[in-house]
Amino acid sequence: MHISHRVMLAHRNIRARDFRLIEQSEGVIFFRPTLRSEWSRGVSEEFNFALQTIKPTCVIRDKKDGPIFQSEASTLATDNRNRVEIIEKDLTDTTNRSSAFTEAANYMKEKLDKIKTTHV
């Protein structure tokens, strides 16, 4: 088996695993999804998959990562149901990092509580 074929199979298996994890979750938090100034293809696919499965979604970004780039903005614009929370902080500070995760957890709890009460 050629090495590039093995790499392709590995990527396909990782993608399938990541999508299964999203399917099994109640919500998704993306931590610093920006790589080299924009989202990687895999992160964009996972983000869009989370939106398609109607999962509450939170993006934690470092302010130093720069502005939201066009690829991120268009991806975020696809969500018209107010299910995406964007938290931006200086994540080099451990207090800010902890605060960002607390905010993300609270957002998820609030959204999931709302979903559960509307489906009861």
- Helix content percent band: 55-70%
Number of helices: 4
| Unreliable runs | none
Q: Calculate the mean pLDDT score and round it.
A: 81
Rg of Cα set: 16 Å
Determine the structural class based on helices, strands and strand pairing.
alpha/beta
Largest sheet: 3 strands, parallel
- The tally of domains stands at 1
Which overall shape is indicated by the principal axes computed on the Cα atoms? globular
Strand order of the largest sheet: 1-4-5
Number of E-type strands: 5
Distance between the termini: 52 Å
The CATH architecture designation is: 3-Layer(aba) Sandwich
What's the order of the H and E elements? Answer: HEEEHEHEH
CATH class designation: Alpha Beta
Could you explain how this protein is built, in words?
This protein is of the alpha/beta class. The protein is built from 4 helices and 5 strands. It has helices at residues 3-24, 41-52, 70-77, 94-118, and strands spanning 28-31, 34-35, 38-39, 57-62, 84-89. The strands form 2 sheets. A 3-stranded parallel beta sheet has the order 1-4-5, sandwiched between helices. Strand 2 (34-35) and strand 3 form a beta hairpin. Helix 1 (3-24) packs parallel to helix 2 (41-52). It is globular.
